[in-house]
Amino acid sequence: MLSPVDSFESHINDTLNAGAGLCDKRIVEKVVRDGPAMIDELIELGVQFSTRENGNIKELNLGREGGHSKRRIVHAKDITGRVIEQALLDAVANAPNITLYEDFIAVDLFTHSKFVGPAGKEAAWGCYALDKRKGIVHTFLSRITVIATGGAGKVYVYTSNPNIATGDGIAIAYRAGAQIANMEFMQFHPTCLYHPEAKNFLITEALRGEGAVLKLSDSTRFMKAHHEKAELAPRDIVARAIDFELKKSGDECVYLDISHKEPEFVKERFPNIYKKCLDYGIDITKEPIPVVPAAHYICGGIKTDEHGKSSIERLYAIGEAASTGLHGANRLASNSLLEALVMANSAATSAGKELGENSAVLPSIPEWETRGAVTSDEAGVISQNWDEVRRFMWNYVGIVRSNKRLERARRRITLLESEINEYYWDFRITADCLELRNIATVAKLIITCAESRCESRGLHYNIDYPEKNDKEFLKETVIELKTPAQTKERL
User: What residues contact 233, with CB distance under 8 A and at least 6 apart?
Assistant: First the structure.
């Protein structure tokens, strides 16, 4: 461990508690125990994590977030993800054996059953991918395909995610026949900045870890009435508490207040948040931050084993696109970055071994052709359907659900998916069209999983089943397309 007062067992127990009975303990132990070595590797790659002086020794400045019983979060001030990503991109750019294709979006996977024949296990052999700038579809063949496409927050109106988080990898894996698990567990981050000019700006949970408190518009604290850990309760509880208070008061936001801390501490610990809020006229050292919950992280995804292998041969999934068993029904704060590092390393090792043991011949894949598809002059159809999917998902399949809301969502996604598929086949594909197709698929998966879990557990809360039901639902929700959808090559 990185702290003498912490232990692997403590981190494991915190993760299991957050996961509400659905974590795979083997995966939890693997990720927690393998984590420190991955952090050391990042430091070797040049990541400069925040440190502090302890006597004459410089040590990592560990933070604490919701659900954690100890300070154990390694961070780079308040831009940890950005710093890690930049270091990894720099390493890739300097690697002689890696070719980057930027601004491409995958269309669909090549599967064994479609391009080789029905005999043998289903396998992936690469994918068609659209060059977004040129509008050309390319053929990428591969003996190993890894999906690392991130999350699906853009399925909802309000999200902390970037615009590209449209669940593309999950959707194409589902269409290829891969098992998908636990899609009902969408984590809503409790605190996104609420401001008419702000877009997707996350107010990190680390503020609450450093003593920030949540208040109503009249400055009343409310979290103690919802959970014994108050602001340090797991994210699902905090998000539901805010949702409850907003519905009760009719207010549009609540407030996160760290102004009681020393101004210099706040500026040093959270420089990015301080500057960003100041840009919007909010001085967080003097006044509270208006915040609302927003879709943040999907705990479900492509079901994998401990090496990142999916149910389809030669297809791996890592990061937020994967469902490894680590998070269960609710992700413990910051475990996602740790999981991404550990599972990426494990997948790379496994894939290298698989390639060394089996030099299978790549199949022959036809080039993509349009087959009569024409350029669309109906861009409004895409924006209309995009907006409709995201709004009914927020209203009916959001923080709090019910049988009636889910039924309404099911009816709407059935109609919309038919319309979207018709558009997909009739017109030349664009990135907007592909992303719309994918968020519709992911929305359907979330609805299907939510309908099948007749209880409330972790991130899934259904007012018609407000209690956990361990007798029937202490298990993953796993779905797969029995007759995988095939890509028409438009030959």
Answer: 66, 67, 223, 226, 227, 241
What is the rounded distance in angstroms from the CA atom of residue 156 to the CA atom of residue 389?
Answer: 8
* Other C-beta atoms lying within 10 Å of the C-beta of residue 217: 14
Residue at token pair 């060059």: 131
The structure tokens listed for 467 are 């209690």
Which three-class secondary structure state does DSSP give residue 305? coil
What pLDDT does residue 3 have?
81
Rg (CA), the chain: 23
Question: pLDDT tens digits, residue range 343-370?
Answer: 999 999 999 999 988 777 898 999 897 7
- Which run of H or of E encompasses 295? strand 289-298
363, exposed or middle or buried, with CB in 10 Å at 0-12, 13-18, 19+? middle
Angle between helices 80-93 and 335-357 (to 10 degrees): 20
Contacts of 36 (CB under 8 A, 6+ apart): 1, 2
Cβ-proximal residues to 138 (8 Å cutoff; 6+ apart), any chain: 101, 104, 128, 129, 130, 131, 368
Q: Which residues contact 23 (CB under 8 A, 6 or more apart)?
A: 15, 16, 325, 326, 327, 328
| pTM of the predicted structure, to 2 decimals | 0.89
Residue 75 to residues 47, 64, 81, 394, Cα–Cα distance (Å): 10, 10, 9, 31
Low-confidence residues in the chain, pLDDT < 70: 1, 119, 371-373, 377-378, 484-491
User: In order of start, what are the domains of the chain with their CATH numbers?
Assistant: 189-296 (3.90.700.10), 379-479 (1.20.58.100)
Q: Is the distance from CB of 308 to CB of 317 less than 8 angstroms?
A: yes
- Where residue 219 falls (left for φ over 0; alpha for ψ -120 to 50; beta otherwise) is left
The residues that are catalytic are: 235
**Residue 444: predicted pLDDT:** 98
If we measure between CA atoms, which residue out of 132, 111, 451, 154 comes closest to residue 310? Answer: 111
Please write the tens of the pLDDT for every residue from 428-484: 899 999 999 999 999 999 999 999 999 999 999 999 999 999 999 999 999 999 776
Dist CA 73 CA 334 (whole Å)? 7
